[in-house]
Protein: Collagen triple helix repeat-containing protein
Amino acid sequence: MKKINYALLILTAAIMLFTISCGKDGAAGPKGDTGDKGSTGAVGPAGPAGANGTAGSMIYSGTTAPVATKGAVGDYYLNTTTGLLYGPKTSAGWGSGLSLKGATGATGAAGSATLSGAGTPAPSLGKNGDYYLDKINYLLYGPKSGSGWGAPVNLRGPAGPQGPEGNANVKVDTFTVKSEDWRYTDDSNNNYYYEIDANSYYKVKCVEHSNSLITASLLNTGLVLVYFQTDTNANGFQWQPLPYSYISAFSYNWVYETYEGKVRLYFYIGQVNPNSVPPDLETYQVSTKKYKIVMISGSIASSLQQNHINVNKYDEVSKFLNIK
Structure:
């Protein structure tokens, strides 16, 4: 029986293991964790400039066909008179144009007409689709159909409320007096005078304004008031009553007198300081101003006093009498 040599067997196994370990790689191990992100690298140098692009086409326009020298290859041209579009232009020229106008459309259907007259429309009047206005009764018929005009529509709305009572007893006359309208003497070359009292008077300049509404009856039973605007740029409520005086170095005065069919306006300059000499009235230029005559007749005249209306305050008078 053979005797096993264990030492030799162990040595042989060790040599085989060593040989295997030094041979081909074994299986791959598991994937490891992602490493940290590296720092950003430096910017690279700019690339070279690109080549220029080709020139784009142009669109020209004019009232005639394009001339051969107009534009470049690839361009377009619109004839605004004929509506022809030429292009794109080639080396051979513009070629024939393309019409941008479509064909003429078909004739449309006749539209409806609006007729008018006094009273109801006759059945034979108009055609289907027409309208008719009765100008007497403000009735609108239509559109007319095969069965006739049909029932009309009343164009009048309901009656409004009763308006405020008119004031026929109040008349207003507004007018402008210019500098050149003032007269120093009458047609007989006589001076005008305004009597202050039985023993004194002023030499005055005068303007005579006619108004046929100033009747004898109005002067006897009514009231005639006169106002003027001291400022030509004043608004409608800045009216001052006459008589009116403005005192500076002298007194400048406007007064009036009423006659049947007219009003006389007077202007004079009074002396405030006996040692001062007033301007020469004959050459003095009275400024241009607006005047307003308010003529009040009937019971309205007495109602001013009954309602304590101050006739020297135009705003009170105008509001009470509804003067616009």
About this structure: Residues 59-65+72-94 form one domain.
